[in-house]
Amino acid sequence: MARPLRIEYPGALYHVTSRGNAKRKIFRNDIDRMYFLDLLGKTVTRYHWICHGYCLMDNHYHLVIETPEGNLSRGMKHLNGVYTQKYNWQYKKTGHILQGRFKAIIVDKDSYLLQLCRYVLLNPVRAKIVETPDLWRWSSYNAMTGKEKQPEYLTTDWVLGQFSDQKRRAHRLFKDFVMKGIHDTTLWKNVKGQIFLGEKEFIERCKRILGKYDALHEIPRSQRFAGRPSLEHLFTDNIQQQKQERNNVIYDACIQYGYTLKEVADFLGIHYTTVSNVIRNHENDKN
Fold first, then answer.
1. Contact 184, 176 (CB under 8 A)
2. In a domain, 219, yes or no
3. Per the confidence metrics, is the pTM higher than 0.85?
4. For residue 160, how many C-alpha atoms fall within 13 Å in the half-sphere facing its CB?
5. CA 96 → CA 1, 88, 162, 175, 251, distances in Å?
6. Is the same domain home to 72 and 173?
7. Residue ranges of the chain with pLDDT lower than 70?
8. Burial 157-193 (b: 16+ CB within 10 A, else e)
9. Is 28 helix (H, G, I), strand (E, B) or coil?
10. CB 118 within 8 A of CB 178
11. Which of 67, 197, 255, 285 could serve as a FRET partner for 47 with CA atoms 20 to 30 Å apart?
12. Does one domain contain both 16 and 145?
């Protein structure tokens, strides 16, 4: 399986997760969590990140990170690397404690940042560790709602500013917003190509950035063709009745939009060799 591509550019916003090997705990106690948050603060400062939210669970963590300098991978290498060294020294372990590379989904800030922060903060509730998010010490929820002092590395202005210019009112409205989302599981249905959380225009902007990569062939199909039109959209009833038009769309579906021969064949109810012949004939006609 191809590794997810790291799309990095100034101002990019990410949902970042990292999990323990074999689902093992990466935080054994509160001391581990306090050390990680201290290290996160230093990483935010060192790499000039903007941290909009976080939540530490037992065997993984969630971060909402904006990178004004487009340097997510560098910062994550530092964060996970230093924490691993400290953990191994503390518990006399060796090797990796985290499962492979961190996962990063690039997010459309204007459309999804609020929903993403809500999702992250509700993780302990969905895991049935606590009944309400304020009972979990190891997230940014209490700082976001004014219950605790805001750490220097946490930025709340943008999120709270979406609710009110008055801080107390913003705290109250944000709290209401989070609580209303406890049973909302629709957020990740909007993820495209494993790494995009945004609408079509946002994905197109990201794809233009992808186009600047020299090694474009290394990008997984699911990411390279994220946001493409569905086969239902490409093949209308009218087009299916006109053979030449249908063949043109078959060619575009496979070559331009990256659908496989089998995907197109199964959708149209024809043999995949028929699709292959259509593409070959189309290319011969062009030559």
1. no
2. no
3. no
4. 22
5. 21, 9, 40, 37, 46
6. yes
7. 1-5, 209-227, 237-241, 272, 280, 283-284, 286-287
8. eebbeebeeeeeebbebbbebbeebeeeeeeeeebbb
9. coil
10. yes
11. 197
12. yes
The CATH code of the domain that includes 137 is 3.30.70.1290
Q: From CA 5, how far away is CA 16, in angstroms rounded?
A: 13
Query: Which position has the token pair 């913003």?
Result: 170
Pairing of strands 50-56, 60-67: antiparallel
Which of 175, 191, 207 is at the close of a domain? 191
Characterize the bridge pairing of strands 103-107 and 191-192.
unpaired
DSSP state of 214: S
Sign of CA dihedral 263, 267, 271, 276: negative
Would you state the pLDDT for residue 188? Answer: 84
Angle between helices 272-286 and 261-268 (to 10 degrees): 110
155 and 272 in a single domain? The answer is: no
Tell me which amino acid residue 5 is.
L
Per the document, the length of the chain is 287
Q: Beta partners for 67?
A: 12
Q: Specify whether 136 is located in the same domain as 273.
A: no
Is 13 exposed, middle or buried (CB count within 10 Å of its CB: 0-12, 13-18, 19+)? buried
Domain extent at residue 245? 229-287
- Assess if residue 182 is contained within a domain: yes
Q: Is 238 helix (H, G, I), strand (E, B) or coil?
A: helix
Give the pLDDT score at 241.
58
